[in-house]
Amino acid sequence: MKAILSLSLAAVLFTAPAMLLRADDSASLLDAARKAVAKSDVPGATEKFEQALTATAPTDKRLAVIALEYAQFLKRNKGVDRAVAMAKAASEKQKSAGVAPIDRVAVLTVLAEAEVARNDKAAFESTEVELVKTWTEAVGPSQPVVANNLLRLAQTYMLNAKYADAVKAASDAVEILKKSHGPDNPATGYALSILAPAQARSGQMAAATETSKAARAIMEKTLDPKARPIGAGIVAPKIVSRVEPEYSEAARKAKIQGAISMSLTIDESGEAKNVTVLIPLGAGLDEKAVAAVKSWKFEPATKNEDPVAVRSQVEVNFRLL
Fold first, then answer.
1. Quick one: which of 64, 123, 312, 313 has the most CB atoms within 10 Å?
2. Fold held by 1-130
3. CA-CA distances (angstroms) from residue 19 to 62, 287, 319?
4. Domain 141-222 is found in CATH 3.40.1160.10
5. Is the pTM of this model over 0.90?
């Protein structure tokens, strides 16, 4: 298994792939592209990636693997516009071929990531809408993975000043999580904390006040009173060691993938404590993510050179490849 980890504690990306390529022509082209990348041969890698995309049928699950690696390569080499165009073409290729919704998610996710890298908020919003629709068609409207994508869509709507749309997306996510996790679960509380500012921005001040109060009542139970937020005068902790999360068998069979957001306390000794899922995926992946993060080791945060306990957030990204 291969993992990608950002060093920023605000958004730690941890990728746990769960499928392997088969050996054939498109796989050989991908292997050639990888070798060209290793040699820093940008023209050669570009040529082989393009050939691999052309050779791979839209119904072939390896299309997502090629799109992902090519997009990462392009972004590293200042080709983000091409990354967006490539991922969009791959997505449209799948859609035109009638590929099942669950098998379109991976390429749509690559497209969304490329749009974020290009800072194209309007295009990213459109792709997020498509992801919510695709997940709903794939697994039904009441699954945590749908709530996960609805919350990310709500946050995107907020960035684009579409506050009424943000209220609708966040409200739908809250209802899903109340049923799947319970009304007092931290995931529900966190969803309420996303809903409240959307309500306020859309002019629903009374509702926003009540929602904020409900969110606070839930989330305060998850806070370690001895830990402080990372702020002025505090040197942030650094990751020293980590283990990869395992894919749950239920998620593998259901083809569930995406990012899980969690809060945690990093204590004075660099241990991860009080790990809490904020934006879940379900299907056993939340438990796998928590178990992995609990084993991570950190160089503790300091204030005036003395170790201090701090609160932080991490994001673990599960991707089926």
1. 64
2. 1.25.40
3. 10, 20, 9
4. no
5. no
